[in-house]
Amino acid sequence: MENNQPIIVKRVKKTAGGHHGGAWKIAFADFATAMMAFFLVMWLMSVATPEQKKLISGYFKDPIGFSESASPFVIDLGGSPTPAPDRTLNQPVDDQTEGEQREIEPGQVAPDQAEGIAEEVERERLELLLQELQNKVEENPQLQRFKDQILFEITQDGLRIQIMDAENRPMFASGSARLQPYFEDILLALADTIKAVPNKISISGHTDAKPFAGDGEYGNWELSANRANAARRALIAGGYDEAQVARVVGYASSALFDRDDPLNPVNRRIDIVVLTKKAQRAIEGEQDGSGDSSPAAPPDQAAPTASPVEPAAAPLPSTEVRERLNIFDQGQLLLDPAGE
To answer: Which residues does the UniProt record annotate as the domain OmpA-like (predicted)?
Structure first.
């Protein structure tokens, strides 16, 4: 039987895939270029000197001034460029300042930081002195009775010690600069602790607002100054170096402790300030930059004070101290034949 079914031949034409484009290559090239530029900038920043960094910053702030200067390049292999001062707003590079900063070794302290460090160390020392004085008042039975009349505080000028009158316990005889025995004992006890630090002191006397009853030529100003000087004598008799007294002054009633009650006994007081170096220079009339401009050395490196020709005299007995200190009589100053 004949097979008349037609034979069908299928021809399959194979073709390659279409072209997808090369845009990704351009993006990758841009990314590689950006990364190379980034690392190149990072390398230049790490090796550039401070002068070159300032000049680069100046170029981006004012490129016109740099393009018309001696060198059109920001970094010239022949040397650093010199911008034209009259065509740019950039500040000139202070080579001396940068050179001085580079001369500082890693273990050294910059000159502008030395004074701040010295002030911080000095404040810590005054805080330790305050703690020591407070402990002495608490541990000494003789001083503990008067702890309500003794105030300690750290101020801008140093450690201030205020010894105030009480209603029935004045420091001085009424209207005079004659020290009471217990007030002398307080000053003698404080002198032994205060002299342990090299800081100088300032002593000031204060009165209340009650007018002085007596001769018209003698008033609260004279009385407050004489009382401050009497306190100075007590400290010196207790072994304190007289050369360490920077100032003795009387304020009368111009700086009241209790302004609401000008007649309050607490307004009659003696202030002893253990001065900071800065406050001491201000008292001694030294202005910043007029004298030695070098910063103060730390306390542990300060130059030792000159030794006196004769050794300091030993503290006098309490009875002899009172005889030598009470040189005031009814507000009138009596000269001490011994020059004291």
So the answer is: 159-278
